[in-house]
Fold:
Amino acid sequence: MRNDWVCAEYVRTRSDDIVDALVEHVGITVTSVAGGFVLALVLAVLARSWPRLRALILGTSTVLYTVPSLVMFSLLLSVTGLTATTVIVGLILYTLTILVRGILTGLEGVPPDVREAAVGMGYDGLRLLRKVELPLAMPAVYAALRVATVSTVAMTTIGMIVGHGGLGNLIDRGLDSNFRAEVLTASVLCVVLALVADLLLVGLQRWRTPWRRGVS
Amino acid sequence: MDALIEAFGWFGDGANWQGRDGVPTRLWEHVWVVAVSLGLACAVALPIGLWLGHVGRGGTLAINISNVGRAVPTFAVLVLLFLTPLGLSVWTTILALVAFALPPILTNTYVGMREVDPDARSAALGMGMNGLQVVRKVELPLAVPLIMTGVRLAAVQVVATATLAAFVSGPGLGRIITSGFGRQDVAQIVAGAILVAALALVVEALMEWLQRAADPVRRARQRSSSAASRRARGSAAIEVDRAIETGS
Structure:
């Protein structure tokens, strides 16, 4: 039996399958990164306000990052079962290491006189954060977001262990049935997806931070 | 929580500690394959990174290789390699592990070398050092913290990928997890996961210690009182030479 690496027939006849996997992959990635970002933003702001909490948050997220994804999903399995939630919770925990650090770096890079000027103009609390500090922290935040997104796209494949790995499911199935074209197609799609996500974020950054266009 | 208690029950079963599939065998396989892969990756990436950093070329490659490495799923590479003629051999695992250990080491070595204060480099050249001496006595010692960060990242990556290798019949602790999934034995899955997590944390702690121990500048600072500072820095440089020669 032929077992080519590239098979147009497979892509044509199983396009529904591939699209389903792709949709699940994108869904899991987007949910994880978005959830991770919101959580990281809260944690970063908390860490900035309380130095003791800062060490705890950074320390915990580093430890979490050390745990291999397969292990993380296996441990979560005993709590959330064979669901996409297991994968999403695990991936959110991974994004935290990168995102909390990135957001903190960005916030701490805001020049003190800018903050003072804003406070002098009557900005405080959330409004100071939203209108002055976050916009200035954007370059570092986007850098972290790009790293987190690209690695999340890749790591989503491991979700196949609980049956929710998007394109990872196809790779797993291709492995079981020794079907090269399925594995290669899913693998290539996964890398392409990561690159597209990265480009989208670059575009988003250019659009959202017009004042920096001349810089980078 | 039940799963956790069951997992401890699994640890208590003597049968799980013996034979081909026992914890000690799998742990040894895991450590062995990680050490070999990390060693090979260092042997390839360190000289290339040091050289590129020293001559200041290939920066785009050295930096982007890490970004590409992040985008490629480790699981995909393992399965793709498994479906090549390499197949069941242990080299499938080692090749994949090396491939994912290379980028962080290469990038960090390059960046570490480039971030050496140009004045220090000029001073070394002005003292009559040749290229190799500048690398050995000035650039490398100053770049050690970043280089070790790269090796540490690679170690974390390799431990994780080695676990995944179980899916392609590779060696290591991952086998305990995958066979747990095969038998739908949650206790065994969680027990295997705990073992790998513990190993990953031990490796991380070990690398952190190594990172600190290997930094000649830091060591010199710790040892030197203000009077003996110049001498201490000199001996630190000599120790780095020795470390390179012994490959430790």
